Recover the amino acids of this structure.
């Protein structure tokens, strides 16, 4: 205990922390004209963190900080995808924020701190670390939602998010304390062993399981704990929505893996049943309620809920293939969702938000290229081949059929069918309707156009060649 | 002489063919898609060249597909022109292409009809020409892939992907109710196919591969077979379409542009019937046997009831659409009557005839219904209505057109000497071996088909010139003449000399029937 823990494994985290503070300080010395320095520094930080993560991954060394921190390949791959998505969010949001005089260093600093929270969550190996990471992420998110402080909608959304988020954190914490009371440990491995050894099921442990699942599902946005999601998605400014809607899903997936699989794997039978109900509810609510939405951000919020249901399908299967499927689903989903929000940002202009479905009317007339990109996103989310969303669904469905729950697969595809309707509706608006007379051509910077195009094409390319990404998921998940 | 089994031949074939030969099927799948990208790019840079480029690519693809026919070995039932490389190793999915006598003619039908569609849209389509042509080229490639894929997942991917261009074609270039029609089309087909996906995954989980040929030889219990059969039935019945899931078809046809209708009727409907032969029958023979009466019943309902429905139509496109449903009923009847004939005669001879009749009917209907939709398109381009009542006495103003319309109408009512006769006659003859009353019911359609088709022709073509609009109509131009002429050629050719087509199919169909009549239990 007296020796200093090995710090090597946590170098990326420490680097982000240092850079976050550094940018915060630098930013105070910048005039608005030079604000872009903070932006570039943040992007450089993300890139350097990625490089550090790869470098640290090669040094080996699994656990550190008295086993509170784990540095495994699943964590590293998930982190790399998190960096990618955060970097995309930064890039897409630059022009949008500048047009609305929200282009402040705080956005990027909070983004970096949120990313640090996610990194800690992904690498956590102890309930305390998990909670630390989660709270760091959540607090950054609450603040980011409230960043546009003159907007009543944003403030309302931030308030709602904060109150509900605090309850969820409390629930999670309560579950953790119950577990500690029952088993006397907060370490995931030791906890897992204790639960596996105990022959009878402890009521305290069962209660704890319930509280932990509620907390997790709130963070992931699974029904019936989804109420905050549409309001926050709609109220927050689009770059913040994009941030909330993408990278944290990866971290939440890691949380499920660490808590439920590594920690409470012995209770699989119990959480399998709970997650089955939650998955069906999420797919159902996400698919059906989305149909009546007219705001694209709200629609994407409900679509997220339904996708979360599919992710849960993979987790509840409780097999290695199921976890791999869920990871593949999460990664591909965030790629699609980033592209979708990127499109909303692309169409927005100074003083004009493109978050209504109507705003996509006749996009094929205005820009056939970006209409095609959005088409790929929509068909990808609907799970129509050859786009990658199909393979994500296929992967989880296979996992579910593998454990003999074909009926659940049938339920899932029926909800997928229902949700196809609203994705088709967006395509219909873009292709079958004519653009209004006063529509202006798309204004966007060169880099945004290129990156968004790459993001859209990735949905197609990963669909034509999903093999490498699947193999990657299969390699890093060995539970 | 040593006995060489079928499997050995297949092995030899795949060994020296996998890498050595020109990957003709891959070219047929990817070249149209590459062509579509070129067309889209040209739409931006040189809009004038778009039509010629599309024509160029579709003709080249057709030319490349001809060696499938000329180089086809009619003596074997095993797959030919095989290409097999691993695609997704995690799932053991292969990029596995190959054709037999059942799928090869359908590919040729597809490449041929796409050329016609490109020519047919030459002047009619003025809005977003590049996207229109590109959509058809992409669809051509995907459909070629559907007919040639021997991997279940690859098949599913292409089968579904094909919906996207069709969805856009109906939605962008369609009629006034195009949005309703195209969303209905998409959701109906999507609903059918997702259940098929579950069945395919189920078989993968059981067998460890997506190889369709392995599915066919996989032992399956009755319950599993029945569930698989029903899952596939939903997918294929929607596509064929069979009564009562046919209701998307009239809507889609009426709203689709002429080219869309042609491809829908000529190719897309055939995908469903092809699915029965490739999946349902060989994978679940016992379930097919047990549910035979359901299938025969649905087919007869399609033939007779939909025939009556067609008579009542006032919209020409709807009439042809319902006639398609009725004709496809013949195809499914020919397939599923197989068990009945086998029970009665205990030989596979008659059964082979029924299935071959169904297949010939598929090819023939591809040309005939495509041509009929083109004819309706010709009329629509002139008067902008498809209402039969708006026409009358057209023959006085458009004699050349009248010649073609009468020809295709005769083929639609299965007049001897046209391609329509061969298939229907074979199916009725085969049904006769099974059950007189089924044959009677099927033959009834000849009368019904004549009623609705000829009555329409009479009302449109003959009589005095109905109104001033008709009086101003001008006869078909060179472009329309070429399109209709190209359709007429195979209709007559197959009608007077069907032997080459039957030769191509014979080995594969015989092999299939032998497979199907053997119980898997």
């Amino acid at each position: 205990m007296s020796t200093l823990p090995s710090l090597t494994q946590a170098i990326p985290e420490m680097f982000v922390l240092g850079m976050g503070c550094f940018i915060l300080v630098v930013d105070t010395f910048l005039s608005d004209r030079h604000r872009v320095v903070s932006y570039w520094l943040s992007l450089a930080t993300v890139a350097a963190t990625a490089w550090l993560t790869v470098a640290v991954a090669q040094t080996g060394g699994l656990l550190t900080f008295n086993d509170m921190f784990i540095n495994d390949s699943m964590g590293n791959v998930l982190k790399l995808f998190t960096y990618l998505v955060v970097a995309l969010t930064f890039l897409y949001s630059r022009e949008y924020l500048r047009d609305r005089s929200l282009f402040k260093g705080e956005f990027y600093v909070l983004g970096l701190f949120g990313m640090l929270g996610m990194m800690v969550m992904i690498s956590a190996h102890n309930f305390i670390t998990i909670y630390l990471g989660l709270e760091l992420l959540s607090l950054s998110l609450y603040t980011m939602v409230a960043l546009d402080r003159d907007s009543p909608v944003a403030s309302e959304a931030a308030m709602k998010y904060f109150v509900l988020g605090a309850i969820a954190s409390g629930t999670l914490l309560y579950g953790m304390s119950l577990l500690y009371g029952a088993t006397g440990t907060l370490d995931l491995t030791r906890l897992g062993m204790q639960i596996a050894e105990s022959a009878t099921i402890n009521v305290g442990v069962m209660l704890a399981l319930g509280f932990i699942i509620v907390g997790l599902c709130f963070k992931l946005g699974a029904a019936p704990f989804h109420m905050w999601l549409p309001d926050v998605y709609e109220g927050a400014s689009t770059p913040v929505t994009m941030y909330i809607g993408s990278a944290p899903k990866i971290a939440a997936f890691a949380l499920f893996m660490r808590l439920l699989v590594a920690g409470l794997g012995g209770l699989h039978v119990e959480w399998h049943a709970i997650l089955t109900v939650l998955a069906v509810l999420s797919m159902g609510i996400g698919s059906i309620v989305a149909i009546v939405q007219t705001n694209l951000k709200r629609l994407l919020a409900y679509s997220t809920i339904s996708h979360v249901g599919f992710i849960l399908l993979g987790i509840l299967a409780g097999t290695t293939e199921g976890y791999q499927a869920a990871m593949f689903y999460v990664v591909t989903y965030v790629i699609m969702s980033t592209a979708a929000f990127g499109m909303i940002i692309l169409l927005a202009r100074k003083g004009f938000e493109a978050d209504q479905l109507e705003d996509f009317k006749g996009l094929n007339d205005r820009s056939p290229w970006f209409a095609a990109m959005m088409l790929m996103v929509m068909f990808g989310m609907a799970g129509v081949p050859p786009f990658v969303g199909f393979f994500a669904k296929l992967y989880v469905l296979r996992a579910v059929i593998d454990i003999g729950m074909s009926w659940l697969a049938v339920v899932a595809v029926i909800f997928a069918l229902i949700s196809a309707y609203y994705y088709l509706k967006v395509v219909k608006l873009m292709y079958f309707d004519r653009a209004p007379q006063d529509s202006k051509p798309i204004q966007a910077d060169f880099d945004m156009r290129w990156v968004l195009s790459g993001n859209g094409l990735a949905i197609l390319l990963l669909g034509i060649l999903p093999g490498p990404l699947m193999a990657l998921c299969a390699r890093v998940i060995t539970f | 002489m040593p006995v060489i089994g079928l499997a050995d031949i297949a092995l030899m074939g795949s060994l020296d063919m996998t890498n050595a030969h020109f990957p003709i099927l891959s070219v047929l799948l990817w070249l149209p898609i590459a062509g579509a990208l070129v067309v889209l790019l040209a739409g931006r840079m040189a809009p004038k060249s778009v039509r010629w480029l599309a024509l160029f690519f579709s003709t080249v693809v057709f030319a490349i597909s001809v060696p499938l026919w000329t180089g086809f070995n009619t003596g074997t039932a095993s797959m030919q022109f095989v290409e097999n490389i691993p695609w997704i190793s995690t799932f053991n999915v292969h990029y596995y292409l190959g054709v037999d006598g059942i799928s090869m003619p359908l590919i040729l039908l597809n490449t041929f009809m796409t050329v016609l569609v490109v020519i047919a849209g030459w002047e009619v389509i003025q809005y977003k020409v590049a996207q229109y042509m590109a959509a058809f080229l992409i669809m051509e490639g995907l459909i070629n892939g559907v007919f040639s894929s021997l991997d279940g997942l690859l098949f599913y991917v292409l089968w579904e992907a094909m919906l996207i261009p069709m969805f856009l074609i109906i939605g962008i270039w369609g009629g006034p109710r195009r949005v309703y029609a195209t969303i209905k089309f998409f959701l109906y087909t999507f609903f059918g196919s997702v259940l098929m996906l579950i069945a395919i995954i189920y078989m993968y989980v059981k067998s460890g591969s997506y190889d369709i040929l392995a599915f066919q030889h996989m032992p399956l219990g009755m319950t599993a077979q029945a569930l698989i059969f029903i899952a596939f039935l939903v997918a294929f019945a929607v596509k064929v379409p069979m009564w009562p899931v046919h209701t998307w078809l009239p809507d889609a046809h009426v709203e689709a542009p002429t080219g869309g209708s042609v491809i829908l009727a000529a190719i897309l409907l055939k995908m469903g019937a092809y699915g029965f032969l490739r999946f349902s029958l060989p994978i679940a023979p016992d379930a097919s046997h047990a549910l035979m009466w359901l299938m025969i019943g649905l087919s007869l309902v399609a033939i007779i009831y939909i025939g009556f429905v067609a008579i009542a139509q006032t919209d020409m496109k709807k009439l042809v659409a319902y006639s398609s449903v009725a004709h496809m009923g013949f195809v499914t009847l020919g397939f599923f009557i197989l068990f009945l004939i086998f029970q009665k005669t205990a030989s596979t001879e008659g059964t082979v005839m029924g299935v071959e009749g169904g297949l010939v009917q598929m090819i023939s209907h591809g040309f005939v219904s495509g041509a009929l939709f083109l004819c309706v398109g010709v009329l629509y381009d002139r008067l902008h209505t498809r209402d039969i009542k708006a026409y009358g006495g057209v023959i006085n103003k458009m004699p050349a057109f009248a010649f073609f319309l009468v020809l295709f109408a005769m083929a639609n009512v299965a007049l001897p000497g046209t391609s329509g006769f061969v298939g229907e006659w074979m199916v009725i003859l085969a049904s006769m071996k099974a059950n007189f009353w089924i044959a009677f019911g099927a033959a009834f359609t000849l009368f019904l088909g004549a009623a609705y088709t000829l009555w329409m022709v009479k009302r449109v073509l003959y009589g005095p010139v109905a109104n001033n609009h008709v009086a101003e109509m001008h006869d078909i131009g060179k472009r329309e003449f070429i399109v209709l002429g190209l359709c007429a050629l195979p209709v007559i050719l197959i009608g007077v000399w069907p032997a080459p087509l039957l030769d191509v199919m014979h080995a594969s169909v015989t092999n299939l029937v032998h497979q199907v009549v053997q119980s898997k239990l």
Remarks:
- Confidence is low (pLDDT under 50) at residues 1-19 of chain B.
- Strands of chain B lie at 80-88, 93-99.
- The longest helix of chain B spans residues 349-383.
